[in-house]
Amino acid sequence: MTGDHVPPSRVFGAILMRDITVARRELPFFLLRTTLQPLLFVLIFGFVLPKMGMIPRQYTATVLPGVLALSLTLSAVQSVCLPMVQDFGVTNEIEDRLLAPAPIELVAVEKVVAGTLQGVIAALVVLPLARVIMGPIPGLSFGNAGLLAVVTILSGAAFAAIGLFLGTAIPPQHIGLMFSAILGPMIMFGCTYYPWAGLQVVPAMKYLVLINPLVYVSEGMRAALTPSMPHMNTWVMLAALVATTVLFLVLGLRAFDKRAMK
Amino acid sequence: MPAIETHSLRKVYVPNVVAVDALDLTVEEGELFGMLGPNGAGKTTTIGILTTRVRVSGGEAIVAGANVVTEAPAVRRRIGVVPQRPNPDRGLNTIENLVFHASYFGVPHGVAVKRANELLDRLGLADKRDAKVGELSGGQQQRLMIARALTHDPRILFLDEPTVGLDPQARLGLWEILRELHGQGRTIVMTTHYMEEADQLCDRLAIIDHGKLLALDTPSRLKAQAPGDTLVEVTFDGEAGPVVDAARALDGVSNAEGRGPLLRVFSRRGGQIIPALIDAGEARGLTVRDIHLSRPSLETLFISLTGRKLA
What we know:
The structure holds two protein chains of two kinds.
Chain A: H1 8-25, H2 27-52, H3 59-88, H4 95-98, H5 105-134, H6 145-169, H7 175-188, H8 203-208, H9 213-225, H10 234-260
Helix pairs in contact in A: 1-5, 2-3, 2-5, 3-5, 3-6, 3-9, 5-6, 6-9, 6-10, 9-10
Chain B: E1 4-13, E2 17-27, E3 32-36, H1 43-50, E4 58-63, E5 66-67, H2 72-78, E6 79-82, H3 94-104, H4 109-122, H5 138-150, E7 156-160, H6 168-183, E8 187-192, H7 195-201, E9 204-209, E10 212-217, H8 219-225, E11 230-236, H9 241-249, E12 253-259, E13 262-267, H10 274-283, E14 288-294, H11 298-306
Parallel strand pairs in B: 3-8, 3-9, 6-7, 7-8
Antiparallel strand pairs in B: 1-2, 1-4, 4-5, 9-10, 11-13, 11-14, 12-13
Helix pairs in contact in B: 3-4, 9-10
């Protein structure tokens, strides 16, 4: 018999390695799923329409942070939510990890970490491609690399936690509904295609959208990438992202526990 | 120290289904212990509790020296679990299923690979080493689950209905594997609803129904407890109830009961009472549709304890 006690950090590392191994094999499909739509949007709204003169060139400065926010959050949500639905569903594949010698919540936390990583990877892929497609972007600056890193990781964590909650709390048969009923409006009201400050033309909307966590990701990307453009107060944005992460981690872990232990 | 001990173990599912009711069990180190009962008897729930995967409603369970509620990770470290339905990790191939599982238990990579190859050899899966798990047959997946449960060298192996859905040849193959593991001194706990399997494999058997322990002993002693009588089952074309009293009054009948059209009679005179049973039925306007005789066995003991058949 090998040593009796296994440190939880070691179990965590092993399960993370498993997810990295599986994700690496599916990388092309993963990127296609999560970055194609944002990149197509960049192509039309950041390249074709400005070239036609239907949209001012400066719009690219609004689009870039927005599509980054979009690819980052969509991949983080999906890379936790979909495996959760599948693993707890018919195949019950998650069972072998739930039998690992560590608290079962570790399995959920590991998924959130893996989801955060996948979100960051999607953002890293989209950023240079979008820049190439759109050409020079007015006001784009990489001087805030530290803030960019913090916003990216925090946003990935927040949406991976949301994915954990959705994947465990929503009955599997309603998961299609989640995409149209939750993610759809979230994207449209997420300040991805317009800056939050611009919403002052519809004041009610300006304050209603604040319940949407995607708003803080988009505005965070603006603060980091195009700091000279109008964007939300950095500290408010960071606080909202931390609060979202904590809230959905707590709700997600609770829902996970309910699914995992009969 | 026994391998497993439970005291007044209880599980109630919401809203009010008692799946396990005041269960006291002791399984000794090195035993091959069987839990026998019909579907829904509470066997799977009991295994779920002992393997830390089902919340306990009351009582206590100690597995491999650790409490399943307060020391769940320690219990998990010391047990291997073969589920009722194979649930391999579909993102990984055959050998990866074993190597990664071992890594969750802190087994060093080199040791895990060596052990995985040995297990695949032993369980006849060596040629499927790099196959996707979706390409394995049901029996092969079942054996993969056994291999997986053994990769971290557990003290106790749990198997929940391991032979359900296997063809007869695969079932015998699995029996061989279990005997071999048992021969190495490993404690094995399995559930089954096949009498023959329980009889052939297990050192001791717990007969469970409605979450309660009805009998617990070696198969041979349990068989000795079976009503020393032949079970005669007569199916009529109508309710058998009216015939029960007449059957009980017959010479050599130790007990009789009616279940719908089925009349069950325990007879000390074997099949000799059949003509009298037929007459008793006809006198009440009933015609016999079917007659079945069973010699004293685990099956007849089970029926006398629970009033119902196993499968």
